C-alpha cells in the first residue's frame, strides 16, 4: 500500500451507470424515477471528481441498444437529458467544466441534439474538467463509423499502413485520453459495448451498488483499488 496522500489518481474515469431500474423496482417506484435518481447521482459524482484531481469523466448515458426499450421510457430519457443540460450548463461554465459527446447524434431527436450541441459549444473553452457523455453510443458502432470516415476521406493509401495511433484519430473523441479506470455498478460483470477500443488497458472495477446509491465513499473505494494495481500494459512492470 502506498503512503496516504500519495496514491495515484486516475486521470480519466469512465462509468457504466447501471441499476436505475432495479433501484426503482426495489422501492416500488417506476423505472423513470430510477433514471431521475441516477441523473442526480451523476451530478454529485462530477462534484466529487473535481477536488480529487480527476480530469475526465465519461458516462454511458444512452447506448445504441437502448432504443429497443419501451418507447415511453426512451422518450422520458430524452426529456431527462434535455432538462439536465438546460439546468446545468450555466453551472458547468462557472465550475470550469467542459462537456463533450461521444457517439452519433444523427438519429437523435432534433431538440435533444440541438441542446447537446449547444452545451458542447458553450463550454468548449473550459479546461478544469471534462464531462464526456457517451450518448447514442456503442463501441462497435464507433469503430465502424471510424472506418467509414476513413474510407470517405479518400486516403486509401493510408489504410494500407495505418497504425493504431492513426486509426484512433478517426474515433469520436481522439483528444480525450483512454480511461484509466472503468467502473460498472449493479454487480454486472461486462463492458456492454462500452469504449471497446479505448478500454483495452483500463483497470476494471465492478461494484454491486446500484447507480443511484453510488456514493463518494464508493468512488474512493474504486480509486483506492486502482492505486493498488500495477499497470504493466503488457510488459513485466517493476515486480517482473
So, CATH architecture?
3-Layer(aba) Sandwich
- In the sheet with the most strands, the strands line up as 3-4-2-1-5-6
Largest sheet: 6 strands, parallel
- Category by helix and strand content: alpha/beta
Number of separate structural domains:
1
Radius of gyration: 18 Å
The level 1 CATH classification is Alpha Beta
Order of helices and strands: EHHEHEHEHHHEEH
Instruction: Please indicate the percent range of residues in DSSP E strands (runs of 2 or more).
Output: 15-25%
Oligomer: single chain
Q: Please tell me what the overall shape is.
A: globular
Instruction: Give the full name of the CATH homologous superfamily.
Output: Decaprenyl diphosphate synthase-like
Write the topology of this structure.
Layout: E1 12-16, H1 20-26, H2 31-49, E2 56-63, H3 71-95, E3 97-102, H4 110-122, E4 129-137, H5 139-152, H6 156-161, H7 164-168, E5 181-184, E6 203-206, H8 216-228
Parallel strand pairs: 1-2, 1-5, 2-4, 3-4, 5-6
Helix pairs in contact: 1-2, 2-3, 3-4
Describe the structure.
This protein starts with 11 loop residues before the first strand and ends in a 12-residue tail after the last helix. The chain has one domain: Undecaprenyl pyrophosphate synthetase (3-Layer(aba) Sandwich), CATH 3.40.1180. It is α/β, with parallel strands linked by helices. A six-stranded parallel sheet has the order 3-4-2-1-5-6, with helices on both faces. Residues 1-5 have low confidence and may be disordered. The longest helix is centred in the middle third of the chain and has 25 residues, at 71-95. The protein is built from eight helices and six strands; from the N terminus they run βααβαβαβαααββα. The radius of gyration is 18 Å and the shape is globular. 42% of the residues lie in helices and 15% in strands. It has helices spanning 20-26, 31-49, 71-95, 110-122, 139-152, 156-161, 164-168, 216-228; strands at 12-16, 56-63, 97-102, 129-137, 181-184, 203-206.
Amino acid at each position: 500500500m502506498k503512503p496516504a496522500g500519495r496514491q495515484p489518481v486516475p486521470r480519466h474515469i469512465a462509468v457504466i451507470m447501471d441499476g436505475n431500474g432495479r433501484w426503482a423496482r426495489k422501492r416500488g417506484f417506476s423505472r423513470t424515477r430510477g433514471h431521475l435518481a441516477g441523473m442526480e447521482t451523476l451530478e454529485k459524482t462530477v462534484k466529487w471528481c473535481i477536488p480529487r484531481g480527476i480530469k475526465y469523466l465519461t458516462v454511458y448515458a444512452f447506448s445504441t441498444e437502448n432504443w429497443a426499450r419501451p418507447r415511453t421510457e426512451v422518450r422520458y430519457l430524452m426529456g431527462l437529458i434535455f432538462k439536465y443540460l438546460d439546468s446545468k450548463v450555466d453551472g458547468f461554465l462557472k465550475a470550469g467544466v467542459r462537456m463533450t459527446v461521444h457517439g452519433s447524434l444523427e438519429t437523435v431527436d432534433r431538440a435533444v441534439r440541438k441542446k447537446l450541441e449547444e452545451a458542447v459549444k458553450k463550454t468548449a473553452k473550459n479546461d478544469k474538467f471534462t464531462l464526456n457523455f457517451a450518448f447514442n453510443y456503442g463501441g462497435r458502432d464507433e469503430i465502424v463509423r471510424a472506418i467509414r470516415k476513413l474510407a470517405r476521406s479518400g486516403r486509401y493509401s493510408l489504410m494500407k499502413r495505418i497504425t493504431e495511433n492513426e486509426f484512433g484519430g478517426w474515433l469520436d473523441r481522439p483528444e480525450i485520453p483512454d480511461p484509466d479506470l472503468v467502473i460498472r455498478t449493479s454487480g454486472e460483470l461486462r463492458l456492454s459495448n462500452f469504449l471497446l477500443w479505448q478500454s483495452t488497458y483500463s483497470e476494471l472495477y465492478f461494484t454491486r451498488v446500484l447507480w443511484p446509491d453510488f456514493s463518494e465513499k464508493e468512488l474512493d473505494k474504486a480509486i483506492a483499488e486502482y492505486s493498488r494495481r500495477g499497470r504493466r500494459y503488457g510488459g513485466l512492470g517493476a515486480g517482473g
